[in-house]
Specification:
Order of helices and strands of chain A: HHHEEHHHHHHHHHHHHHHHHHHHH
Shape of chain A: globular
Distance between the termini of chain B: 83 Å
Order of helices and strands of chain B: HHHHHHHHHHHHHHHHHHHHHHHH
Number of helices of chain A: 23
Radius of gyration of chain A: 22 Å
Distance between the termini of chain A: 43 Å
Number of helices of chain B: 24
Number of domains of chain A: 1
Strand order of the largest sheet of chain A: 1-2
Helix content of chain A: over 70%
Radius of gyration of chain B: 32 Å
Strand content of chain B: under 5%
Helix content of chain B: over 70%
Oligomer: heterodimer
Number of strands of chain B: 0
Mean pLDDT of chain A: 86
């Protein structure tokens, strides 16, 4: 172990700029792959596939390299591997300022792993006009890596849009029935959310009077002015729309059900986390008083996410709609973690974001595999798939168990930390409906498993056999991430804790501990 | 399960607790083709989740009350500050026991769990899973207040009595054993409640009486229940997967080893004095009940009588008399790999009780925690055991033994009682009505409202309003020059009015 650890630290000491360049490379590599795929002339199918795998494998491997490197070289949870490239916008305080802190790291790893899995699945699912699709997917991946590596707020926002636009196009072209209207609705809705967010961010920048538009500069400014409540509401609603906070969630289930599986994996798994990430990195630390005063509203909306959407999920017959709703429901937990406004609550929310991203991506991938085998997504008319595809069943059960918070998967730690934090929130009773949610998710999760896999063969014959090697590899990439953090949560939580104790939440935490000891 | 036993923190117990739940979910659902197996495994997991809901709340409450969930630290903390424990905390933790140890009203999953393969049933019912709940009680006994203990006692008593009553209407050999497990678990939970209440009043180490009695019975029960489950597996194997006892009969002559070991198991669960493990542990429970509460004692004695009777019924119908079906006529003894475990377990079922009375394997662990009757009480307890156990067996022989037909004697003679027993007090009907009529409908309604109001009115409505503005704005652009001239003049007038401060006049 220590030899392995030496490799990471030695590399960091010998080449101090290595890791910073790797961060940049993780963003550039998929973009370069996309560019070369689009300008190159006639290419064989094999060349396109190789290019795709390379374009997605580089960010994933970089993320896996940076994860231990960060833990070993940056124990205080602050920004590491930073680099600054000037863009000609210095006068506005904008530059391509990249780096990772303990909150960005899990998201960066999540983006890398999910991207690789989505790419592998894309190559296997037999999609039309593969080359165009992977070009768009690579652009999206580049944006995803960029979002969470940006310290500069302008680029943080820019990369989000960069990833979002290909999403709309892919849904509009490759989506299933009703794709045009869904793509339109999603475009308008999410652009609206992004614009509200932008308004909030710009107001904050102007009001806080900082010299550069970066996350640490804003955090340092710790804005306390007359406008703080308004700015916070703008950010909450803007980011909230992007994370499908109740009642701004209606785009999500239909959007995910309609989108081609790799897009649903990347959007529900990774891109959606942009909103929560923005709230955690910017809104909460910079506007703690406003966040505290809007806490009750957030609490009610998050509870609605869990209980109302939880019940909506129970009512679904369509597998992908069920997963889409379930993903909306689980975001409620993350929001509750923010509402609890403590180190453990926010830390739990971050773990939850990471875990949910991997598990929901896995579920969307498997759901698509199930649809291709059963020829339908209507759960009551499926059945008996276990005999044809036992490995598929094993993956599906594992993913379902992960998403309902079975210990051993990362999701458990996120949920547990959030539950523990809720007891010390303003309204401890929230814990009761929140935990009730785990019963609801068990109901719909197991019902899906029972109706898809158990029983005799359905009326419609099952096409194809078990998962192919590539699909298994994609599943393993996601599942291993869940299990590693599930068995060793400190691989993230220690650093997250270090990074959060310096934030304004810590002040609240200390109060709690004192009242407890008195 | 080993994790639960070894864990010293409630959070760790919860983790392994969930993993046991998950494993049993997969094992109960082993027969993938059977829809009933899917339903049973789902039910087991979800019902356990309902229990875990309270358990997790209890753990979090414990954590914030004491600042730790380490059991040793907790015990010390409770010792130092008397009165810090609330009844709610204990009852929330007990919710976990309700689920795992299948106490009323969360008992419904256990009989259905018989859908799994028979070795799984033996494992789940004898050694793991259901034992976890009782074991948890023993680990956190210091967290219960007298009020909480009263609730625990009555939950246990009601479960013990009802499940014993329900067992009379079951014809499936594994279902009978399942209800007997339920009933015996109720016994253990009641024993824990009664013994701990009694011990609290006595002070000192007497507080251990409850967990001693419960754990002792848990251990002996594991021997004879595993024995009987494996015995039933041997029977089912010989009968070519026939599980109805009214299709059996006369099996004692056909499969002597299985039959005799099964009989030893029946004797053990009936608690016949001195030749069974069940006697000693049941005796300890009854004695504690007698000291603590007369109504509880009466219920437990009646339950013991019923236990002996329905187990006698099982044995009399399946193993004695003449064969009731062709399969029973052709049944043969199972191979030695199947009967050897039976013989080993039957040794423990007979002798397992002595380990507490005489220096033995478990002497140092449970000794002192199990209360034993002395003097005249001793004789009284033996008499009661003979009455309950022996009387029950005799009753079953008299009642069921002379009937060689394919119908149940109770059903024929007292149909009303039989039907009430068969109904299992309508718990399953109630729950399934809740799931299909209430839960599903509420979910459908909320789904409908969500689609209508949020997805429809709010989002589409907003889109519609935006579209309306578009139409209005478009209608202004008529393309005719004279219209634009009019717009131009209107604008000019407004501009002049603003410039000359006309608006401030209003």
């Amino acid at each position: 172990m220590s030899m392995l650890a030496n490799i990471f630290t030695a590399a960091h000491e010998q080449y101090p700029t290595l890791n910073a360049s790797l961060v940049l490379l993780a963003i550039v590599a998929p973009l370069a792959a996309a560019l070369s795929l689009s300008v190159a002339g006639r290419l064989t199918d094999g060349a396109v596939r190789t290019m795709t795998v390379v374009g997605f494998a580089i960010p994933a491997l970089i993320a896996l390299w940076l994860w231990p490197s960060y833990l070993l070289t940056q124990p205080d949870g602050g920004y590491a591997f930073t680099s600054r490239s000037f863009t000609g916008l210095q006068t506005f305080g904008i530059s391509l300022y990249l780096g990772l802190n303990a909150i960005a790291l899990p998201m960066f790893v999540l983006a890398g792993l999910t991207g690789l899995a989505a790419a592998l699945y894309t190559l296997k699912m037999g999609i039309d006009r593969l080359r165009l699709f992977v070009v768009l997917l690579l652009i999206m991946q580049s944006g995803l890596m960029g979002v969470f590596a940006s310290i500069d707020v302008f680029f943080f926002y820019f990369f989000h849009e960069f990833a979002l636009i290909p999403t709309f196009i892919m849904i509009a072209i490759w989506g299933r029935r009703g794709r045009k209207s869904v793509a339109l609705e999603m475009t308008i809705y999410l652009t609206l959310g992004a614009m509200i967010t932008l308004a909030g961010l710009l107001l904050l920048y102007l009001e806080a009077g900082v010299s550069e538009f970066t996350i640490p500069a804003l955090q340092m400014a710790f804005y306390e002015g007359n406008l703080d409540n308004w700015i916070y509401v703008l950010l909450l609603i803007g980011f909230g729309i992007l994370v499908s906070l109740f009642p701004f969630h209606s785009w999500a289930p239909r959007g995910y059900a309609t989108a081609p599986a790799p897009v649903a994996m990347l959007h529900a798994g990774v891109l959606k986390k942009f909103g929560l990430y923005g709230l955690i990195q910017i809104a909460l630390p910079v506007l703690p008083d406003a966040a505290a005063s809007w806490g009750p509203l957030l609490m009610w909306l998050a509870l609605a996410n869990i209980v109302v959407i939880g019940l909506v999920t129970v009512a679904q017959r369509d597998l992908k709609l069920m997963l889409g709703n379930a993903s909306v429901m689980h975001m409620g937990y993350a929001f509750l973690g923010l509402y609890a406004f403590s180190v453990i609550g926010v830390g739990g929310a971050i773990l939850m974001m990471f875990a949910h991203g991997l598990s929901v991506a896995l579920l969307f991938m498997l759901a698509d595999g199930i649809e291709r085998r059963c020829g339908t997504l209507d759960m009551p008319s499926m059945g008996g798939l276990a005999q044809k595809a036992p490995v598929l069943m094993a993956f599906f059960v594992a993913a379902t168990m992960a998403s309902i918070g079975l210990p051993g998967f990362a999701n458990f730690w996120g949920e547990l930390a959030i539950f523990v934090s809720l007891w010390k929130s303003e309204a401890p009773w929230v814990l009761i409906p929140a935990i009730l949610g785990i019963v609801i998710s068990a109901i719909y999760g197991l019902r899906a498993v029972a109706s898809i896999f158990y029983g005799d063969s359905p009326a419609q014959p099952i096409q194809g056999g078990d998962l192919s090697k590539t699909e298994k590899l994609a599943g393993v990439v996601l599942l291993v991430g869940l299990l590693v953090v599930g068995f060793w949560p400190r691989s993230f939580s220690d650093a997250i804790h270090q990074s959060l104790v310096d934030s304004p939440f810590a002040a609240y935490e200390v109060q709690h501990v004192h009242t407890f000891e008195d | 399960m080993l994790g639960i036993v070894l864990a010293d923190s409630l959070f760790m117990i919860f983790i392994f607790w969930e993993l046991v739940g998950f494993s049993s979910y997969m094992l109960i659902g082993h027969y993938l083709k059977k829809p009933s197996a899917a339903a049973a495994s789902k039910k087991a997991f979800i019902v356990n989740r309902v229990g875990d809901f309270g358990f997790l709340l209890g753990i979090i409450l414990t954590y914030w009350t004491f600042g730790t969930t380490e059991l040793t630290a907790l015990a010390a903390a409770v010792d130092v500050n008397e009165g810090t424990v609330s009844a709610a905390l204990g009852l929330l933790l007990f919710c976990g026991v309700l689920g795992k140890s299948a106490q009323m009203p969360l008992h419904v999953w256990l009989p259905d769990a018989m859908e799994g393969p028979t070795p799984i049933s033996a494992l789940i019912h004898a050694a793991t899973m259901v034992a976890a709940g009782v074991f948890l009680l023993a680990r956190v006994f210091f967290l219960f207040t007298p009020e909480a203990l009263t609730v625990i006692t009555w939950v246990g008593l009601i479960t013990a009595f009802s499940a014993a009553f329900w067992a009379f209407a079951q014809n499936d050999i594994k279902k009978i054993l399942a209800y007997s497990t339920l009933s015996q678990l109720g016994y253990m939970v009641a024993a824990f409640g009664l013994g701990t209440t009694y011990g609290l009043a006595q002070g000192g180490d007497a507080v251990l009486y409850g967990l001693g009695a419960a754990m002792f019975h848990l251990t002996t029960h594991a021997f004879f229940k595993a024995l009987m489950f494996l015995g039933s597996g041997s029977v089912i194997h010989a009968m070519h997967h026939e599980q109805d006892i009214y299709k059996m009969g006369g099996l004692l002559r056909k499969m002597p080893v299985t039959g005799i070991t099964f009989l030893l198991g029946v004797i053990a669960i009936a608690g016949i004095p001195f030749i069974s493990a069940g006697f000693f542990s049941k005796d300890a429970i009854l004695f504690v009940a007698k000291l603590q509460s007369t109504p509880a004692f009466v219920i437990l004695v009646i339950t013991a009588l019923m236990t002996a009777t329905y187990m006698g019924r099982l044995f009399v119908v399946a193993f004695l008399g003449s064969a009731r079906s062709e399969a029973a006529g052709h049944a043969h003894e199972s191979p030695w790999v199947m009967w050897l475990p039976l013989v080993i377990l039957s040794v423990f079922a007979v002798g397992g009780g002595y380990m507490v009375l005489y220096p033995g394997v478990l002497h140092g662990i449970l000794d002192g925690a199990v209360l034993h009757p002395k003097g005249s009480d001793k004789l009284l307890m033996v008499v009661i055991s003979i009455f309950a156990g022996g009387g029950g067996l005799l009753l079953s022989w008299l009642f069921y033994g002379r009937n060689s037909g394919n119908t149940d004697a109770l059903e024929a003679k007292l149909p009303a009682v039989f039907n009430v027993s068969r109904s299992r007090f309508w718990f399953d009907e109630l729950y399934s009505a809740y799931v299909t009529k209430v839960q599903q409908r509420v979910a459908d309604l909320i789904d409908f409202l969500d689609t209508l109001f949020i997805g429809g009115l709010l989002v589409r409505g907003a889109a519609g309003v935006a579209g309306l503005f578009g139409i209005l704005a478009r209608s202004l652009h008529t393309g005719s020059v004279s219209a634009y001239v009019w717009w131009f003049f209107t604008g000019l007038l407004l501009f002049l009015a603003y410039a000359t401060n006309v608006f401030s006049l209003f």
